[in-house]
Amino acid sequence: MPLGPFGRTAVAMITPFGADGALDLDGAQRLATHLVDRGGCDGIVVSGTTGESPTTSDAEKEALLRAVVAAVGDRARVTAGVGSNDTRHTVELARAAERAGAHGLLVVTPYYNRPPQDAVAEHFRTVADAVGLPVMLYDVPARTGTELAADTLLRLAEHPRITAVKDSAYDLSKAAKVMAATDLAYFSGCDELNLPLLAIGAAGYVSVVANVAGPQVRSVLDAYDAGDTGEAARRHLALAPLVERMMSAGAPGTVTSKALLGALGLPAGPVRAPLLPADGELTDGLRVVYDKVAGGL
């Protein structure tokens, strides 16, 4: 499949901070370069949930985006997370990201205020109308409290700049219905569903685990693309212990990713409150599983 505006093997990149909690732009550039040149990623998503967007300022988001575009924008697609639960603010963020050089936008369903489906659709159309960039809808009802219903997705697919979905809804039936009826490019937003979604027509993934195991995550897609579905399944299952430990260990993927990146000597730094850093026991357990998975693929 062609690369497209979002890449195929995209990573939901963490946002590195210094020891004092300030934005580490040099670290962000070094990490993005590592993820693209050595991590097998052809797409970088900045300022998503994993990038701690709820606790970074608008100015920090723009500075981070500019730094990552400067570092890898010539050889990877850089997508900016711009979603909020305020349509006006989301439009402002989207326009700023376009000026800063983003190749695409990730826009989450408005959270907390729980708008009905017609309002959700209007929110996305308003953002897409305000910019000239392709838009990836982010469907993650466990976090937002509001799903993107299949009928809403079918209507939004008619917009010329709404071209993709980051699917974190854990609903393969809904994904299949929308993929069958539209040209929306689906990207798995849940590492445990990367291969199942590929099998029903997804274009790629936006992976948290790729922060630390990008080549291993990509190897699943590469085997699938090569037509070796048995090898793709083997590699997917071999990754499962790391996915489970990173995403279901009682700490968010941001925390576990930063703990592992730090243990591997890569830029990460602390998390921002209200998140708490991984303790030694969690970090040691992550490293044990990581070493087994990285050595076994």
From TrEMBL:
It is an enzyme of class 4 (lyase). Its EC number is 4.3.3.7. It catalyses: L-aspartate 4-semialdehyde + pyruvate = (2S,4S)-4-hydroxy-2,3,4,5-tetrahydrodipicolinate + H2O + H(+). The active site is at 138 (proton donor/acceptor), 166 (schiff-base intermediate with substrate). GO terms for molecular function: 4-hydroxy-tetrahydrodipicolinate synthase activity. The keyword Kinase does not apply. Pyruvate binds at residues 50, 206. Pathway: Amino-acid biosynthesis; L-lysine biosynthesis via DAP pathway; (S)-tetrahydrodipicolinate from L-aspartate: step 3/4. HAMAP family: DapA. Belongs to the DapA family. This is 4-hydroxy-tetrahydrodipicolinate synthase. It comes from Streptomyces lonegramiae.
